[in-house]
Amino acid sequence: MNLYSREQESFENFCQNEFLQLFTETSIAVAGASQAIDKIQQASLASLGDAAQISIKNSQFESIKYSFFSGGKRFRPLLSFAGAQYLGLRVDSVYPWAMAIEMIHTYSLIHDDLPCMDNDDFRRGKPTNHKVYGDAIALLAGDSLLTEAFAVLAKHYSKLGSPLGALITQLAHSSGLNGMILGQYFDITLDSGAVAATPSHLNQIHLLKTGALISGALTGPALIKNLPIEQLVPMKDVGLLLGYAFQVKDDILDSAQDKDSKKNLIHHYKTVDKLTEFLKQIHQQIESKIFDLDQKLNSPSGKNQHLLQFLKWNITREK
Fold first, then answer.
1. Rounded CA separation 157/99 (Å)
2. pLDDT of residue 44 exceeding 60
3. Which contiguous run of DSSP H or E holds residue 251?
4. Given pLDDT bands bounded at 50, 70 and 90, which one contains residue 296?
5. Residue 271, SS3?
6. Residue 116, SS3?
7. Which residues contact 301 (CB under 8 A, 6 or more apart)?
8. Residue 123: helix, strand or coil by DSSP?
9. What is the pTM of this model?
């Protein structure tokens, strides 16, 4: 997808700078702690090497960067950029939100790949994080990304006042116990055989595990814009359906290898053609909701072009 190629490059640079600053701040904190201990103990910590470089050199940060900068579609940040354009915001105003969403997404992938979850060996054509750095460091990498995502919001949106609280609440809701994590829990219950893999249960998993965070990506710009509730709710709904459609398309792309898996919707729709027709129906619903939202926002003609492009891209994408 060629949406916002320049902004996407700027976003990557923004992320690189944020991580570099995080490393620098951490190394300063490590050095400061070392100096404090030196004063108390009247002894040096030379055996640890250069304290100012401890945090930069350790493999924990390398494991974080390994997964966060491993490529991927960047679907969620791009959706945030499209939301900014739709609402008349500067695209760079949502970079911190887009980064926080992508950090949460990356942490979820690292944890999903662990032996205690899906036990995957490869992600995006590369060995998974735990295969390179070990289970413990991979687990901590995910924990770090989850925690620091909220720090990114606090750092960049603290001057907004009430929208900061709304952004933090939204990120927690999208990714937490009533969002992505709940979807993952429902996914695990399928693996255990505790529940049946009915279409309604799979829909629930798709809406929560994938849809909730993608809905959050689109909701962030609306919160930054401080939209009233009657405009905010349909914006969330569009994002939720986009996330659901995204996962249905993934099921279509994976149908050949997952044809016998009850966790893939192809098992219930029997043929790719029927599942593709179902996806087109979802897209029609999304398009209708976007046009309804246009009226609620009194949005000028053409403002929705990038949101609509996501529908076309999702239908035609091959990965």
1. 13
2. no
3. helix 229-253
4. very high
5. coil
6. coil
7. none
8. strand
9. 0.90
